[in-house]
Amino acid sequence: MKADKSELIEGAKAGIPIVMGFIPVGIAYAIIAKNAGFTTIETVFMSLSVFAGASQMMAAVTYIPRVVPAFVIDRLKLGKRMKKFLSLIPFTAMTALIFPAIINVDAEAPLIGIAGGITAALIAFFKLPVIFSVVGAVLVNLIMYLVM
Fold first, then answer.
1. How far apart, in whole angstroms, are the C-alpha atoms of residue 72 and residue 102?
2. Mean pLDDT within 65-77
3. Are 63 and 38 in contact (CB under 8 A)?
4. Which of 26-40, 52-66, 96-110 has the lowest mean pLDDT?
5. How far apart are the C-alpha atoms of 88 and 84, rounded to whole Å?
6. 115, 141 Cβ separation under 8 angstroms
């Protein structure tokens, strides 16, 4: 279906309010990215590849706190136990973020989330690919919803 010129003009007019709303967000992002040390190319690339304004802002704002420790720790001579401890932090943090959601997935039936979480943990324990944990947990949750 070919759009005629009047439809394109009407569409452009209808989009003006949204564009006007995004201009301040774009300016704010550019300022934050500049202050975080992003180059112009990095800023433009992130704008073109990430279609979530809040995510762009958070990435730029947290860039320095995330990168600086990596450079500092990389230069330190750490013992084997300290390296192991530091390697576990991301997994611990992810668990702390995910666990409350597992318990609260359904306020009326918390066992559904718990069953899915246990299923995923058991499958992961046997070192199967992640997709099996995901599919297994989803299937258990589906069955639980159908049964309950």
1. 35
2. 71
3. yes
4. 52-66
5. 6
6. yes
